[in-house]
């Protein structure tokens, strides 16, 4: 796909999306797993995967809790799944889009290492035993070894 066409497609998809994520914009980690098996298996071993399980039954029904402990409780996407960090996947998950990194980014794929990805839930007010250290936390959830360079 040529650059101009790619940008037009991206603009059209973003216009359709309305600029904000709706529950239906999430596709879930199982769909991501269809191409990203190693990343999925790594995620399953992280605290993010069990984030909802750490809540009481009452907390699982409380939006104030599930906004951070679930990707989209409305869709039954419990735990902090792929899209919590990488953005809702409705527009970027198809294989033909994912094969075009520029297009995938244009329609919403985030690196997941942007400060906002963590800061949405890990705030100064978040109950923690130790202060949140983004750099250390990213190392725990990184899917691949850090690039040297």
Distance between the amino and carboxyl termini: 30 Å
Name the helicity range. Answer: 40-55%
Class computed from helices, strands and strand pairing: mainly alpha
What portion of the residues fall into strands of 2 or more residues?
under 5%
Q: Give the averaged pLDDT, no decimals.
A: 84
Helix-strand pattern: HHHHHEEHHHHH
Main sheet summary: 2 strands, antiparallel
* Strand ordering within the main sheet: 1-2
What's the count of strands?
A: 2
Structure report:
Helix content is 45%, strand content 3%. It is mainly α and 149 residues long. The mean pLDDT is 84.
List the helices and strands and how they pair.
Elements: H1 3-17, H2 29-33, H3 37-44, H4 57-60, H5 63-69, E1 70-72, E2 77-78, H6 82-86, H7 95-98, H8 101-106, H9 115-119, H10 134-141
Antiparallel strand pairs: 1-2
């Amino acid at each position: 796909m040529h650059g101009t066409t790619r940008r037009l497609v991206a603009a059209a998809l973003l216009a359709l999306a309305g600029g904000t994520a709706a529950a239906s914009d999430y596709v879930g980690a199982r769909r991501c797993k269809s191409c990203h098996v190693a990343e999925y298996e790594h995620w399953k071993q992280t605290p993010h995967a069990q984030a909802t399980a750490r809540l009481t039954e009452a907390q699982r029904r409380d939006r104030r809790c599930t906004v951070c402990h679930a990707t989209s409780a409305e869709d039954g996407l419990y735990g902090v799944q792929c899209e919590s960090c990488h953005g809702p996947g409705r527009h970027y998950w198809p294989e033909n889009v994912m094969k075009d990194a520029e297009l995938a980014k244009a329609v919403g794929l985030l690196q997941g290492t942007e400060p906002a990805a963590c800061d949405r839930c890990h705030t100064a007010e978040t109950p923690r035993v130790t202060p949140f250290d983004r750099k250390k936390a990213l190392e725990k959830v990184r899917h691949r070894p850090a690039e040297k360079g």
